[in-house]
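Students often ask why inverse folding is considered easier than folding. One informal answer: many sequences map to the same fold, so there is more than one right answer. In these notes we will look at a single instance of the problem. The structure comes first.
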């Protein structure tokens, strides 16, 4: 997995955002009003397996501060055969989170402000990762009605059931992310985001000041 402009680290290829990579994200996940410097982002490529055990190549863009965490986490998931169906740049879905989630695509960086604020979301900083999102939706109750994101994930909001790619507290994916200091959206009480791991607000604030 070696090529010009990057380095191979523990079975993963890592590089800065080269012109070639920037051309793939410009105006998509890296929008015109993105204040995050490109120097703070890294491109990763690594192996993962789907539920049939097929070996696939994943691509992800994240904040430079969590590169080594993600390399270690995905290396260990791969070695253990923990299934992650698709890991493609969200730009392949027009940087549309809903479309990417419906395709069960795992991803990290996608620049956006939190609705109605000028605060950048953790995904917008490359500090949050969604894993197998179709089967591990974001679930909240609005006016007494349960809604899910993606909207096609209603069948997977019932967490007592067993189904493929289900992420749950105590499983390998949960353990690896939390051992690396990430918080899990499945632990939130006002809503649930079963696909979502993010660095703490304290860490994000430190990184935000730095950038
Ligand atoms: Zn997320």
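Output (designed amino acids):
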């Amino acid at each position: 997995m070696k090529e010009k402009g990057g380095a191979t680290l523990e079975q993963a290829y890592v590089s800065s955002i080269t012109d070639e990579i920037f051309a793939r994200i410009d105006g998509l996940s890296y929008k015109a009003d993105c204040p995050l410097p490109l120097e703070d982002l890294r491109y990763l490529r690594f192996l993962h397996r789907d539920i049939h055990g097929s070996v696939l190549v994943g691509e992800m863009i994240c904040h430079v501060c969590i590169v080594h965490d993600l390399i270690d986490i995905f290396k260990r998931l791969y070695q253990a055969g923990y299934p992650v169906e698709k890991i493609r740049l969200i730009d392949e879905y027009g940087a549309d989170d809903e479309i990417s989630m419906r395709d069960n695509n795992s991803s990290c960086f996608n620049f956006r402000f939190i609705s109605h604020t000028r605060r950048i979301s953790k995904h917008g900083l490359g500090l949050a990762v969604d894993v197998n999102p179709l089967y591990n939706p974001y679930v909240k109750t609005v006016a007494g009605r349960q809604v899910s994101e993606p909207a096609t994930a209603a069948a997977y909001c019932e967490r007592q059931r067993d189904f493929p790619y289900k992420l749950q507290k105590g499983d390998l994916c949960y353990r690896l992310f939390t051992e690396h200091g990430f918080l899990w959206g499945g632990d939130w009480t006002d809503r649930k985001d079963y696909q979502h791991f993010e660095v703490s607000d304290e860490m994000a604030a430190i990184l935000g000041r730095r950038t």
